[in-house]
Design goal:
Low-confidence stretches: 102-106
Structural class: mainly alpha
Strand order of the largest sheet: 1-2
Order of helices and strands: EEHHHHH
């Protein structure tokens, strides 16, 4: 299925499932520790798991008679569907968003997720109002000294604010400006939470 990306069978590390289905299985050659755990009955593997709109057989798939997820062989679409539970939609509203959960107590602001991503954009946390909260592995990094009192920072802050306040017509420009504004506002709120907020 994966063409040139597939590994030759003879380099795979063989594993023998306790519930055989007639197939032969192997792991990537770098996964020797997992092979040992599997052989010692300390590791299980769940295969053929994914997002579906409805139960689908191979025959239905081949004949095109089943409703299939959008972007079935697209990694980015499948990642979004796992985090949103919506295999027939590309709406980026995740299962972990605060407006979906009943217990919203302790959240300082509806625009800020109660979760933190250390690995970039995270659909699981995103909602209609709430944006995912992302920081780098080095922690939160200030945007060009935004909001600091020194003269150069004041000039930069005013320049950024004026750029983000412009009325953009292009969808990408408009979205970028809105996301930047939201991120800056969320950063300021998170630095000075109101009493009773969880951090």
């Amino acid at each position: 299925m994966r063409g040139d990306l597939a590994l030759p069978r003879d380099v795979l590390l063989p594993i023998v499932p306790r519930t055989p289905d007639g197939g032969t299985y192997g792991l990537h050659p770098a996964l020797t520790a997992l092979q040992s755990l599997f052989a010692a009955n300390q590791l299980s593997i769940v295969a053929n798991v994914g997002t579906l709109v409805e139960p689908t057989t191979l025959d239905q798939y081949r004949r095109g008679t089943a409703a299939l997820p959008l972007g079935l062989f697209s990694h980015s679409d499948q990642s979004m569907q796992w985090q949103s539970s919506l295999p027939d939609s590309r709406r980026s509203r995740g299962l972990g968003r605060p407006d979906r959960r009943r217990d919203r107590r302790g959240n300082c602001n509806a625009n800020i997720s109660m979760n933190i991503s250390l690995s970039g954009s995270n659909v699981w946390q995103s909602g209609r109002v709430t944006s995912h909260y992302t920081i780098s592995e080095n922690g939160a990094e200030p945007l060009w000294d935004y909001g600091r009192p020194n003269p150069q920072a004041v000039v930069r802050t005013e320049a950024i604010d004026s750029l983000l306040a412009l009325q953009y017509r292009h969808l990408f420009e408009k979205t970028f400006a809105a996301r930047m504004r939201g991120a800056i506002d969320a950063a300021w709120i998170s630095r000075t939470p109101s009493p009773g907020c969880r951090r």
